[in-house]
């Protein structure tokens, strides 16, 4: 755990104490309030390639929450597309290096915003009737691009 704490404090938070505290409070909320949705999106953005953003998200997702509650993808169609069953029953969804332009983020804005804030989600599988279920998912974006940061200020 010490290397993870050091990394989030010194690399991810750049020694900003308030930011470091906010990050850990956001992640703790996922565990401490499993029946509630954070209703905000956490964006880890760095202009540096390979600064360890995925090390942190994989640790939180796989080691803290468990692989069955964590889903990471760079294909937003799996989350925001018509057939979105991978998002069902997850506590943390990480959108990695999506490489989307500002225009593409704008296109998906309403749908993503509803996934982040609404307590119910429609799940559609191929050939099976759509169903609405309660949703407690927290969303994160990791990116080296400006588009997510500029969209969610």
Automatic annotation (TrEMBL):
NrS-1 polymerase-like helicase domain ranges (all copies): 44-146
InterPro entries for the chain: NrS-1_pol-like_helicase (IPR045455), P-loop_NTPase (IPR027417)
Protein name in the entry: NrS-1 polymerase-like helicase domain-containing protein
């Amino acid at each position: 755990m010490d290397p993870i704490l050091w990394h989030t404090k010194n690399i991810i938070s750049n020694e900003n104490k308030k930011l470091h505290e906010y990050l850990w409070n956001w992640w703790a909320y996922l565990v401490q309030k499993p029946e509630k949705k954070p209703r905000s999106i956490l964006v880890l953005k760095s202009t540096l390639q390979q600064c360890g953003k995925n090390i942190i998200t994989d640790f939180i997702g796989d080691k803290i929450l468990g692989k069955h509650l964590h889903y990471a993808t760079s294909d937003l169609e799996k989350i925001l597309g018509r057939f979105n069953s991978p998002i069902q029953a997850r506590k943390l969804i990480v959108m990695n290096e999506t490489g989307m332009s500002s225009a593409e983020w704008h296109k998906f804005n309403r749908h993503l915003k509803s996934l982040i804030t609404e307590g119910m989600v429609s799940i559609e599988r191929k050939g099976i009737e759509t169903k609405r279920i309660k949703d407690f998912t927290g969303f994160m974006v990791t990116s080296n691009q400006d588009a997510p940061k500029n969209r969610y200020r």
